[in-house]
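pls read this stuff:
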Amino acid sequence: MIRYRRNARGKSQCARPTRAARHFTADVTLDQKNGRFIARRVGVPGLDERFTDVADTFNTQQEHYETMKNKLQTLASRYHCPNNDSLSECLKKIKENHELCHISLEVKGYDFILKVRSEAEISSELKRTQENVTELSRATKSVISVSTKLHEMIDWLLKAEDSMISQIEAAESRHQEQKRLLDNLKENLKEARRAKELSPKYRKEAGNLLNEAAQLSGITP
């Protein structure tokens, strides 16, 4: 039995002037830069499906996480905030730049929006900002929503390692092919462990951002 070790700023009327396609690979594993998970084929359909489900779920969460970070940085850049990951600083600068509008952050459940009240027409810049905040909220919610499911999926795989080895050995009798599939399993489990490490970090950052939004809206998380 084979074993292995485990913008420019302009004037405005209310502003003061101033599941990826499923596929397998025999060569590419977890990208060290962005943590993308690409499943390797292990030759047992049920296991291949499980690994692909984990890869798709993790990659989707990662895409939402990257969107969350990018939207926050977009706001910070537009309003020249010194801190790129502070929603509080962004909201402060937004209010300063559009002081003739009444601006507030409203939170409902896992969603938050930028509310604007103004007697004048809302500027295109401020409308873009509202859209960015909505996109930021959507991405933050999406990061959080898959966390529990992904954790459970990964844990199942890691606990079933011995069983998966036996299934692969039973499904493939040719020594070289069996060795290749078991090596693929080893790489998949390595990636699953990496995803297990990264996913909670994404969840924590998203949770912190949601708590910050709640505090800014006057809600105690």
